[in-house]
Specification:
Two copies of one chain form a homodimer. With 344 residues, chain A is an alpha/beta fold. Chain A is 43% helix and 15% strand. In chain A, helix 5 links the parallel strand 1 and strand 2. Chains A and B meet through helix 4, helix 5, strand 2, helix 10 and helix 11 of A and helix 4, helix 5, strand 2, helix 10 and helix 11 of B. Chain A binds a DNA duplex (16 and 16 nucleotides) through helix 2 and helix 4.
Chain lengths: 344, 344
DNA sequence: CTGAAAGCGCTTACAG
DNA sequence: CTGAAAGCGCTTACAG
């Protein structure tokens, strides 16, 4: 249908080889014929067919992105950043999330073995043996996000949940709270485990005992935070926590919801902190003290590393990088308001 | 590098034509050779090369998605839904947002003329003549989202901002408010204009005069809502509005921010409503009354239409569909709490 | 500086 | 039911 290289060649009275050479700026071409070809191509709105080119060069200029889900600010920010960087390097993004029906493996295989992409960025809850085999046996490079698998075949980027959790726990301790509760994330979840470890070790490092009753498990949802909060509030006053560390902001927001119903005030009645630094935590009152996730940085670095790998920097393979988190102090922890009107 | 059809053919002692036939379930093949081929293909983990296949069939099984930006719940929900439906039909998603450096036209052209996709879903603030020409002159089908251009070459799906605005305005009027202010979105913006029209017409239909001073223009950001709110509050009591309709939730949330600083209570001191139904509006206290955008529906329908177009249902071309919005009543308008503890 | 030709990995009439 | 061959639109040694 659309114009191809033969048509250009015909109109310019040259061979397709010559046309290809000028279009790709490769090999010597007489300036005058170069001009001619360029002009005709422009006039005809010529665009090389990407399939044909890929078939021949084995390059697609496409990056595969596989994410566990496509909900939340988290993934939107990540995609946003991936898109920015990809665009900067002239790459396109083939995005997919894990689905119940078509599992990750299928998608990964289609992307990799089907030759749809030049490389792949994966964030998957579980990278099983089968997937690892696919990744290992494919020449196309891989960047793994927040994954906890052997990775001598891939670049791996992680977020430092552990130290983030320690720092926010430390912050609570510095406020003088001693009975600190934690609402954990779901067991088995990578992020949840690290945050939990960080909390425990910081408590221990400060000689604070952790009352087992003050450790609840949630599932990262608003709802589970809401109920965990209710349970904690119902303890008798000798045990009731002075502060609660929710393993993510969403659960902390569940507590906000309950607090409104019960007329409980943060931080006067009880202090709460979260983890993730989602937008809503900035807006609620009082502002939610939390830990910032370096999502943009994760997006940027993963894309940059992948592109370098694609360009052949093999010495990067096996590289691991841990991105640090940052404490975001607002008011729910007991600090006084640290923003001015207008500072929004 | 990876195994190809020749290798399969060689091992099965058949021609590549036969292999191709069984792989595509096309043409007659003796059951026993079919079995053999299938087995060998499985053993070798064979996967057809997508570029080669596309080059030959002119199909990519890929859908191009071009969005104005990749931030906000709005786009995340949209992408989420597109991904769901695409996956259901075995399609892949090539996603790009508008960029300053590479404009939409470039991307669209690369997707369409470069043969990277079978069809395209576009949501772009401005579809200029040049882009329209590209779309019109390409055989590949197009679905336009919330666009206001002639579209006899594309399916177009819009959201009914106008009636959404009327219904939320009506709701305020039914509460007995007479001096109702509106903080508009940026002029020139499609959604902003429709919402503004809806507001004006509903006011008029109820015989309510609109004081020009009560009409402010924002730019859909938190910040602009914050300042608009401050300005409205500073009016003298004879003019000061009893209720404010913010053209989107984000601006309404700016008002929440200011309200906390100034110790102003919604809806006791002043009622506020928004538009969009973003997550944060559910969490803040009091809950923000707003208008729900049928984003998932938009995503689902646009993908389904596009796939039908790709499959050749030409009679759909030119079809336009307007999706209705829905009033979401919470408490910021003056209604009493309509959710129970635990109902989150 | 340029062109003829092979090849990338597939699909698909066509002939048998 | 099967295979040889052409073709999809490019790139790239190779020869001139």
């Amino acid at each position: 249908m659309s114009v191809n290289i033969h048509e250009i060649a015909r109109r310019c009275n040259v061979s397709i080889a010559t046309v290809s050479r000028v279009l790709n700026n490769k090999g010597p071409v007489k300036p005058s014929t170069r001009e001619k070809v360029l002009q005709v191509a422009r006039e005809m709105n010529y665009r090389p067919n990407s399939s044909a080119r890929s078939l021949s060069t084995r390059k697609t200029d496409t990056i595969g992105v596989i994410l566990p889900e496509l909900v939340d600010e988290f993934f939107m920010s990540l995609i946003h950043e991936l898109d920015e960087v990809a665009h900067k390097y002239g790459k396109y993004l083939l995005i997919s999330s894990s689905h119940s029906s078509r599992n990750d493996m299928e998608t990964i295989y289609e992307f990799m073995a089907g030759g749809r992409v030049d490389g792949i960025i994966i964030m998957a809850p579980k990278i099983n043996k089968q997937i690892q085999n696919i990744l290992k046996n494919n020449i196309r490079p891989v960047v793994l996000l927040n994954c906890d698998v052997p990775h001598n075949y891939a670049v791996r980027i992680k977020i430092d949940n552990y130290h983030g959790a320690r720092s926010v726990t430390k912050h609570l301790i510095e406020h003088g709270y001693k009975r600190i509760a934690m609402v954990k994330g779901p067991s088995g979840n990578q992020d949840a485990e690290s945050r939990w470890n960080g909390f425990m070790q910081e408590m221990e490092a400060n000689g604070l005992a952790v009352n087992e009753k003050l450790i609840l498990e949630g599932d990262f949802t608003l709802r589970s935070g809401y109920y965990a909060f209710l349970r904690l509030l119902n303890m008798d006053s000798t045990e009731k926590p002075e502060a609660i560390f929710f393993a993510n902001d969403m659960m902390a927001l569940g507590a906000y919801h309950a607090a409104h119903v019960l007329k409980i005030k943060f931080p006067e009645d009880i202090a709460v902190v979260g983890f993730d630094d989602i937008f809503t935590g900035r807006i609620v009152h009082p502002g939610l003290t939390t830990v910032h996730m370096p999502i943009s940085e994760m997006g940027r670095k993963s894309m940059e590393y992948l592109i370098k790998l694609i360009e052949g920097e093999e010495e990067l393979i096996g590289h691991e990088e841990v991105l640090s988190t940052g404490l975001v102090i607002r008011e729910s922890c007991g600090c006084t308001q640290n923003w001015l009107p207008g500072d929004i």
